[in-house]
Amino acid sequence: MNKNDQILMTEEFVRQNLKGYDSGHDWWHIKRVRKLALFINEKEVLADPFTVEITALLHDTADSKFTGENSEKDYLLVSDFMDKFGMSDIRDQVLNVIKNVSFSNKNKSDDHDPLLWVIQDADRLDAIGAIGIARAFNYGGFRNNKIYNPEIVNSDESGKVTCQTETSSTISHFYEKLLLLKYRMNTLTAKRLAAERHEFLEVFLKQFYKEWEFGTDASISG
Ligand code: ADP
Ligand code: NI
Q: What is the whole-number distance in angstroms between the Cα of residue 141 and the centre of ligand 2?
């Protein structure tokens, strides 16, 4: 089987496996991450492009948030798939990324992996900017979380971001994760792309609070 066919087979496998995920983790997310990952890798030349493409396609297929706790079963599914379609040579590399790509993943066993850096950066870029905001509110809706809870303080008076433990509002998620992502980019190319997207998060939050205050304080009468 040639590489083109392996990519087509992987696309089909991923489409089948993403059913049941929220629309922020859908096929379009996978396509965006693939494009970002290939772009970053082209600029940085960190890994084999075919391996980058296959890994980007497979990166969310064993996400424990959606598949339950049984990630091992999903890793096995990916592993069997790769063996079956002649990709055993890159299987362990790909599985290492799938296991470590998540922001929330505490497993830091193999951080020195250029393939992981590329995929992680691409996945993180898709979590910020306009698309990141859309995905966050979509995910919040999927979980039936509040848009915002003004009783939770998300930043101190100097405007410095403080970390939140509260996870029930989507605005809180900005402080827990989204605003931190630009500092977590591995590659220079991703850092550059993240700057504009991060700025958009800040513009959005400013406007959000402005509109929120308009409806809740006495400014209307003034
Ligand atoms: P990762 O795999 O990098 O840990 P996640 O799977 O946690 O990322 O997040 C995927 C998408 O869902 C991102 O766009 C993220 O911002 C969004 N998301 C995750 N948790 C929340 C949450 N509690 N509220 C709103 N959005 C969330
Ligand atoms: Ni992803």
A: 18
Say how many Å lie between the CA of residue 83 and the centre of ligand 1: 30
Contacts of 59 (CB under 8 A, 6+ apart): 30, 33, 97, 98, 101, 119, 123
Model pTM score:
0.88
Distance separating alpha carbons of residues 111 and 100, to the nearest angstrom: 8
Predicted local distance difference test score (pLDDT) of residue 21: 66
Confidence check: pLDDT of 165 > 70: no
Asked whether 79 and 91 are in contact (CB, 8 A), the reply is yes
Which comes out higher in pLDDT, residue 44 or 162? 44
* Ligand 1 atom with least separation from CA of 177: 16
Distance 214 CA to ligand 2 centre (A): 36
Neighbours of 22 (CB within 10 A): 17
Provide mean pLDDT across the span 13-28: 80
Relative to the alpha carbon of 61, which ligand is closest? Answer: 2
Alpha helix ranges (H) inside the chain: 3-17, 27-44, 49-58, 64-67, 71-84, 88-100, 114-125, 129-142, 170-176, 188-216
Nearest CA to ligand 1 atom 13: 127
pLDDT tens-digit readout, 133-142: 999 999 999 8
Domains in the chain, CATH or no CATH each:
1-104 (1.10.472.50), 127-214 (1.20.58.1910)
Residue 25 is predicted with a pLDDT of 74
The neighbour count for residue 2, using CB atoms within 10 Å, is 8
